[in-house]
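Weekly sync, protein design subgroup
Attendees: M.S., D.O., the rotation student, P.L. (late)

Item 1: inverse folding check
M.S. brought a backbone from last month's batch and wanted to see whether the design step gives back something sensible before we order anything. D.O. pointed out we never logged the input encoding, so this time it goes straight into the notes. Structure tokens as presented (442 positions):
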């Protein structure tokens, strides 16, 4: 069984996984977590069922003791009215004993409830049945490919060498003020990054119907719990001195817009987008992509989030992925779409597509977007529900998120694919109007 992390008090009112569903069909959860490579899946479920039974037993005992105490308290008055002092004394003694019993059952309920919630919060989402099984990225499946890999007729330079040669990308100055994994962009390259982000926003809002949002980049821990970054992935976050966190992605803020709300199902799907700075500690990535802009502590990203009914989410997932693909197609960059296997998916995902763009300097495809259907996993943690007009019952919404796209990695792909032998960068046709008609950098 996995060692569960302790949840802060503010998280304890929320759901994680449906314990009733686990109780009714435990083997489906054993199978789901086993498909994700969890060797402890059976013991996890066994522990959940024991904690659930202990919790319900404590709740039942508490209710029974409380009910008996109320009855006995009434009978004391009746006994005294009948001047039956012996009976009154016996009832008073019983009430005193019941008070101790009630306190004990309350404590048992608190302890078992906390243990159950902590364990539930540590367990990942259950993958959809059509997600291929695999241990790591080697088990991912290529779904489609757009454009042939761009094989240059000269030795390809990587983006860092190109940017430094143009004197528009300064890693040394960034390191002096901020340390490793930061960059200073200058001049036309800074403008190109701005153009890329604005272009992405315009496409997603004007052509794909996403509503632009300008959210905070500082959030409380409840927001990160809701989208699944806490408590498991705290080491990858930057925390402020007042116990807030810098967002690792606008998925956090956009998804939490429906936190603790009931949305009319007639309004779904909600489609939201934002261009924000994102901040990641990149814990565990020592030695990986240390050169250049591939893996930075601070970067910009256009995020896509959809809030749907359970019936809408599979189709919305496909739609969101094509919305992200459209950016790469308009930029005329070669890419492939990968269906991630169970062992390579994120903690909160039920199904994920990765978009991988071709980088000539590495002679390979690199991830530039992930689009995930989280089902009701995040909605349970946020208590986000929907209801049909005229009906009383509610149900959890489904949430989806995807990059549309990572701006820095898109800039990298443009620089490398649009370079010439002399080190100039051609500007993609769709970006030239954002660059004041400029056709080349350098």
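Designed sequence read out in the meeting:
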């Amino acid at each position: 069984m996995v060692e569960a992390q302790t949840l802060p008090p503010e998280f304890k009112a929320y759901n994680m996984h449906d314990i009733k569903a686990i109780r009714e069909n435990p083997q489906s959860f054993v199978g789901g977590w086993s498909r994700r490579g969890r060797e402890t899946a059976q013991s996890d479920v066994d522990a959940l069922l024991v904690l659930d039974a202990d919790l319900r037993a404590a709740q039942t005992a508490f209710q029974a003791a409380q009910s008996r105490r109320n009855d006995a308290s009434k009978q004391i008055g009746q006994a005294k009215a009948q001047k039956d002092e012996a009976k009154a004394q016996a009832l008073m003694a019983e009430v005193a004993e019941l008070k101790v019993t009630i306190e004990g059952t309350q404590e048992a309920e608190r302890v078992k409830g906390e243990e159950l919630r902590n364990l539930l919060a540590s367990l990942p989402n259950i993958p959809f049945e059509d997600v291929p099984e695999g241990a790591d990225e080697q088990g991912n499946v290529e779904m489609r490919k757009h454009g042939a890999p761009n094989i240059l007729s000269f030795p390809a330079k990587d983006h860092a060498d190109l940017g430094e040669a143009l004197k528009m990308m300064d890693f040394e100055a960034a390191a002096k003020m901020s340390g490793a994994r930061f960059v200073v962009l200058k001049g036309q390259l800074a403008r190109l990054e701005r153009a890329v982000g604005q272009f992405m926003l315009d496409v997603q809002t004007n052509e794909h119907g996403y509503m632009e949002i300008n959210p905070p980049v500082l959030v409380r821990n409840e927001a990160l719990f809701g989208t699944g970054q806490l408590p498991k992935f705290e080491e990858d976050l930057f925390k402020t001195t007042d116990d807030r966190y810098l967002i690792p992605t606008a998925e956090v803020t956009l998804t939490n817009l429906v936190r603790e709300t009931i949305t009319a199902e007639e309004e779904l799907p909600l489609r939201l987008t934002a261009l924000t700075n994102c901040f990641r500690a990149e814990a565990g990535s020592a030695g990986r992509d240390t050169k250049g802009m591939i893996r930075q502590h601070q970067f910009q990203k256009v995020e896509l989030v959809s809030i749907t009914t359970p019936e809408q989410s599979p189709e919305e997932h496909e739609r969101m992925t094509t919305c992200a693909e459209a950016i790469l197609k308009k930029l005329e960059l070669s890419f492939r779409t990968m269906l991630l296997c169970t062992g390579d998916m994120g903690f909160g995902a039920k199904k994920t597509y990765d978009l991988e763009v071709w980088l000539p300097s590495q002679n390979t495809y690199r991830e530039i977007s992930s689009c995930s259907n989280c089902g009701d996993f995040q909605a349970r943690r946020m208590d986000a529900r929907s209801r049909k007009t005229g009906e009383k019952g509610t149900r959890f919404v489904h949430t989806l998120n995807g990059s549309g796209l990572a701006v820095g990695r898109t800039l990298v792909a443009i620089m490398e694919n649009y370079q010439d032998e002399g080190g100039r960068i051609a500007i993609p046709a769709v970006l030239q109007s954002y660059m004041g008609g400029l056709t080349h950098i350098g």
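Discussion: The first strand starts at residue 141 and ends at 146. The mean pLDDT is 94.
Action: P.L. to compare against the previous round before Friday.
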